[in-house]
Specification:
heterodimer; A: about 220 residues; alpha/beta; Rossmann fold; 6-stranded mixed β-sheet; 4-stranded antiparallel β-sheet; 7 helices; 10 strands; globular; B: alpha+beta; Alpha-Beta Plaits; 2 domains; 9 helices; 4 strands; about 10% strand
């Protein structure tokens, strides 16, 4: 589903943010990428989403070479990927409902269907009762769940989550990863970047360890 | 365009009919109207009320009878018209002819100059509107930078992202057109009142009239087009999607 071949990334010479990373995430995998801060986890996810380009190497997602996709066609790739960003990237001037609905609006879903799907997605993350509030009125954990609802509302083939449990209490963190596991069971390939060892110990099936931009270990438990 | 053929005093009816027939037979003349000395006096008194007392003191009507002939604008300066005027001048019963060709041609060139100045100023205003709208859209693109970024990441197409900005530009252009229509309306309604009698005889020459429906539609459509192209140019430069 996701294949990375000899990926190198350099933001500012001479330091390499990623050095010769090669790995494959199979369809239906529940995949963890871990490592300390600055090890290159976020950079990897950004490249899969084609937010940034690798300096060298090839990335294949769902059979397409991400690096070579034309700018005007990149929306097709992004529509099959749901993303939970580290900083959530919510629209703070729009209500909770709109924040989730926007994903469906861009693909031209009918209003009635949008209402149904958004309500269901918000119910899954237990935010349906706060549908008409603004993100600024939500707690940090609720904002994180809102970001997750937005990522899953379109039933994506791939779900990328960058530190989705960062700053959450352990109980809520477990709840969220359990939710990802449910989504994974429904057929989505899930890639989670985290440095939470407890979560990896509990949920980890396939794990990739990064350190200072280098792949130091792959584990399939 | 009007040509006035003044007739000799006490011209016999038969000779007057000959002149009228000659005028009506000409293909250059569109319409002929006879003005009797009484009608001429009435017109004079209406046009120059301040001279009314002088005329009344004269006791006799000094004004001659005449034919007012209407001629199309394209025929007015033609060689055929000049030849016809010359022919009429030599005809019995014609005292004088008011043709004023030079004066009309001067007015026409003045009108052309005014039109050219209008187009020049209009062009400058069109360019100014274009750049103002373009800058407004640029600022909006910067202000909504984060939202655009999120839209891109959830799979919005370029068109989806651009449409609201293009609509905004068009609405600004249409609003500009409507405001200018309102200004024109007030200008036409109140400017002649403001000038009042100071215009004098020029009030006959300067014709204040409202725009026709097609001109109104054209003005609004042009506004929409300027707004659309202004935002399009801004998006091309500042919205890299």
């Amino acid at each position: 589903m996701i294949e990375l071949y000899h990926i190198w990334k350099q933001y500012q010479p001479p330091r390499w943010a990623l050095s010769d990373i090669t790995f494959t995430v199979k369809r239906g995998d529940f995949f963890f990428i871990t490592g300390p801060s600055g090890s290159g986890k976020t950079t990897l996810l950004k490249m899969i989403l084609r937010e940034i380009y690798p300096t060298q190497g090839q990335i294949i997602v769902d059979g397409k070479n991400v690096v070579r996709i034309h700018d005007h066609k990149i929306y097709k790739l992004r529509r099959i990927i749901g993303s939970v960003f580290q900083d959530f990237r919510l629209l703070f001037h729009k209500k909770v409902f709109e924040n989730v609905a926007i994903v469906l609006r861009v693909i031209g879903i009918s209003r009635k269907e949008i209402r149904r799907r958004v309500f269901n997605a918000l119910r899954v993350v237990n935010l349906h009762h706060k549908m008409w509030e603004y993100p600024s009125q939500l707690s940090y954990g609720e904002q994180q769940r809102l970001a997750i609802a937005r990522a899953v509302v379109n039933n994506p083939k791939i779900l990328l989550a960058d530190e989705p449990t960062g700053n959450l209490d352990p109980e809520l963190a477990f709840e969220i990863i359990t939710l990802f596991k449910e989504i994974n069971k429904q057929g989505a390939t899930v890639v989670i970047c985290t440095h939470d060892r407890e979560l990896i110990r509990h949920f980890g099936e396939k794990i990739l360890f990064l350190y200072k931009g280098k792949l130091i270990r792959k584990e399939a438990l | 365009m009007m040509i006035i053929f003044f007739l000799e005093k006490n011209l016999p009816e038969k000779q007057r009919s000959l002149v009228e027939e000659k005028l009506r037979q000409s293909s250059l003349i569109e319409e002929v109207q006879f003005i009797s000395p009484e009608q001429a006096l009435e017109q004079f008194q209406n046009n120059f009320p301040e001279l009314r007392r002088i005329i009344e003191n004269l006791r006799v009507n000094p004004l001659p009878s005449s034919f007012e002939a209407t001629i199309s604008e394209e025929n007015f300066s033609s060689v055929e018209t000049l030849a016809f005027i010359q022919e009429m001048r030599e005809m019995n019963g014609i005292e004088d002819i008011q043709f004023n060709r030079d004066w009309v041609e001067k007015m026409q060139s003045l009108s052309r100059l005014a039109q050219a100045v209008g187009f020049f100023l209009g062009g400058i205003l069109v360019l100014a509107s274009f750049f103002i709208i373009s800058n407004v859209i640029k600022l909006n693109v910067f202000a909504r930078h984060e939202e655009i970024e999120i839209l891109r990441l959830v799979g919005a197409t370029n068109t989806f992202i651009r449409i609201p900005f293009l609509m905004e530009g068009m609405i600004l252009g249409i609003l500009g057109g409507l405001v200018s229509l309102l200004l024109i309306f007030f200008l036409i309604k109140f400017f002649p009142l403001y000038l009042g009698v100071s215009l004098g005889v020029f009030s006959e020459l300067i014709n204040f009239r409202y725009l026709s429906l097609s001109q109104i539609i054209m003005l609004i459509a042009t506004g929409a087009f300027i707004g659309f192209s202004g935002s399009l140019s801004s998006l091309a430069r500042f919205l890299k999607v």
